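My current task is to audit a protein record that another person submitted. What it holds is a sequence and that sequence's fold in token form. Thanks in advance; the entry in question is below.
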Amino acid sequence: MIYTVTFNPAIDYVVRLDAPLEVGKVNRAKGEDCVLGGKGINVSGVLAQLGGESVALGFVAGETGAWLERGLAAQGLKTDFVHLEQGMTRINVKIKAGQETELNGAGPDIPESAMQELEKKLDSLNEDDILILAGSIPASLSQDTYERLLARLQGRGVRAVVDATRDLLVNVLQYHPFLIKPNNHELGEIVGRVLTTDEEIIAAARTLQQKGARNVLVSMAGDGALLVDENGEENLGRYDRRVNSEVVTDCFSGAVTGQRMVGETLYFLNTDGVDIDGFVMKPVGYEPGKRYPGILHIHGGPKMVFGPGFHHEMQLWAVSGFFVCYCNPRGSCGKGNAFADLQGKYGEVDFRDLMEFTDEVLRRYPEIDADRMGVAGGSYGGFMTNWVIGHTDRFRCAVSQRSIANYVGDYLLSDIGYYYVPDQQLGTIWEHPERLWKASPLTYADRVKTPTLFIHADKDYRCTLANGLEMFAALKLHGVESKLCMFYGENHGLSREGKPSNRISRLSEILHWMEEHLKEE
């Protein structure tokens, strides 16, 4: 188990003003928020977002302390605070009016009896548990409090992580903390020199290891972070500043990919005389004349539209050596109501547009190996992926996400509303069941030969889980290679709003499936 300690938690009362703050006058707020935190609590919050479990320890007092506890419980965080009899958990006022003005509360005094109660809680920690000490020490406590706690735990196999400023950090080294986290400026102050290069930072981190730290993680603000581990290895995570700051995707475009690819626009006239627009993204490190696998990506909606913007999963595929192509078939928005109208035509004109787009891409980009093409999509794109594999064998593999497979079964289940299916498919389960069944990809599952990965979330009430289960079971029944990856506790927005750990797992599953089926040995 991971335990975090926050000695002086706070409720941040954030006030936003339209105009600069006028001291001595009445200022009207345009908005306000309350943020519950403190360094240790913030760590517990991040761990929860990543799917990890922790217990937040520390001290709370008064009604504000009770409010903080209730708020953290509502966020799903486990707490085991010591309750102080006097004082109140502090409130920090942060006024955002162009510049930010802060007024931080002092917080309650922490008596020796409360410290002893905290120590009793720490006595229950077991070998390999992790204790995270983060932040400053309140004025009412001795500045050797970190040392006191680590000395008490010494020899019990508890791994200590310390994120603190200069002297607090240096003084705990004698207790051999598992990890310390100075920033590069603090590290320079500790060793007594300015650090300007990675080599200098590594040398300084090794100095702290010689004094007792097992692992040293040095944060470097916009330049990333550098880990010097106890095995003597250095691990540098560097951000790529070339990526537009509006796109918060450093994990893919910088630390992982090192390069952002931009889709090249492709226009063509389909066989019905309709203009179709799309994009083709070349793989990172593209070499003319070399053969590459490709992925056709189908958007959701269908009243959605692909543009030249940043799509993190397609960036991931490009950096992994794939051509990626994507377009706006009929049914997409942006070209008027007639173009977007698919009523009674799902799987017809849109399917033709997608296949003709794929043909055009292969014609213009001969480096793409037509025998190593995959197809993927989610929501409507998942429906269309299911439809594609039931109507062509041209793709070597497929990934169907949060899809629709059976309009008869999904008719009254989707949270989109009971009216949606009859409106879009021009039929009801009582008057036109054969029409709904004909429009359902499950009808054609006995024709499928394409290995397919199905991704679904158990709390998806838009395209219910039954759709993914039915398609998966149908393919298994007919001897087609298939895999079902189901995410518990997630919903239709998994790819955009899910827990980071689940979003990463989703991307890993997709990438592994594509690489397994499309990459040459």
Notes: The first strand starts at residue 2 and ends at 6.
